[in-house]
Design the sequence.
């Protein structure tokens, strides 16, 4: 399906988002996150996913400024954390993130979790930021169908993205179909199950069949499922390997095998109880 590491999907507002990005959750601010981004950009990545909660927006911004790649070619996502939700709070949180990143315009701003009683007000603030041109696209993260239905019935601007935990043990088919029907792009966080299934014999067999690693098989599956994927790593060899998924294709049979892994199992919190 995708031709290269820089292939993009067009979001519902016309903005283009790369299919593959680098996640920087738990990457330490400073040299660690800067080095990871430097390697990723050198290897062809053009999308970086951070969040206020990750506490590394300063390093992310520095890495982007230190790169020889033009700013407009790098897609930067950040998110508003739960304790900063609400209308005025979100406006303030956005300015804090913008200052830390040192970026005039952020490419994608997400509601990190659907905080009950607050996410509608948070969204109204995000619509204002979007209308003012401070962000190119707005979206959500960890929203289930009922959260999206509630949001859509109160929103003037439709979310472009829903970033959720998504991997072979948690295929979220119903949510995925709902997002497709509503032209909201699904994006996978923790696509590699934090390593939990990489030794599964069924996955190892698929990897051997294609001459790829188990991680590459999963990331390729994401793409063929039309899910944007942002594997997190600070290891240069792994960052490179995670990006090397554009020279092979899974068969229908391979995809069925991966689908059969589903246990509705989460490694992160459940949005309904978090």
Sequence:
């Amino acid at each position: 399906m995708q031709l290269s590491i820089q292939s993009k999907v067009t979001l519902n507002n016309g903005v283009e988002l790369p299919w593959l990005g680098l996640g920087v959750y738990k990457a330490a601010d400073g040299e660690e996150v800067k080095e990871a981004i430097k390697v990723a950009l050198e290897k062809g990545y053009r999308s970086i996913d951070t969040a206020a909660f990750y506490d590394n927006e300063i390093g992310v911004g520095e890495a982007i400024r230190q790169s020889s790649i033009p700013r407009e070619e790098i897609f930067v996502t950040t998110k508003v954390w739960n304790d900063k939700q609400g209308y005025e709070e979100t406006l303030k949180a956005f300015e804090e993130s913008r200052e830390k990143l040192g970026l005039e315009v952020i490419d994608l701003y997400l509601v990190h979790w659907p905080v009950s009683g607050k996410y509608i007000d948070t969204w109204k603030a995000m619509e204002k930021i979007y209308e003012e041109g401070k962000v190119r696209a707005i979206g959500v993260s960890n929203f289930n169908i009922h959260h999206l239905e509630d949001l859509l019935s109160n929103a003037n601007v439709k979310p472009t993205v829903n970033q959720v935990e998504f991997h072979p043990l948690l295929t979220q088919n119903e949510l995925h179909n709902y997002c497709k029907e509503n032209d909201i792009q699904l994006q996978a966080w923790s696509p590699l199950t934090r390593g939990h299934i990489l030794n599964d014999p069924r996955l190892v067999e698929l990897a051997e069949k294609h001459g790829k690693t188990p991680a590459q098989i999963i990331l390729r599956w994401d793409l063929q499922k039309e899910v944007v994927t942002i594997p997190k790593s600070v290891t240069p060899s792994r960052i490179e390997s995670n990006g090397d998924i554009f020279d092979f294709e899974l068969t229908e049979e391979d995809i069925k095998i991966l689908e059969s892994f589903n246990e509705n199992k989460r490694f992160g919190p459940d949005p309904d109880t978090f």
Summary: The mean pLDDT is 97.
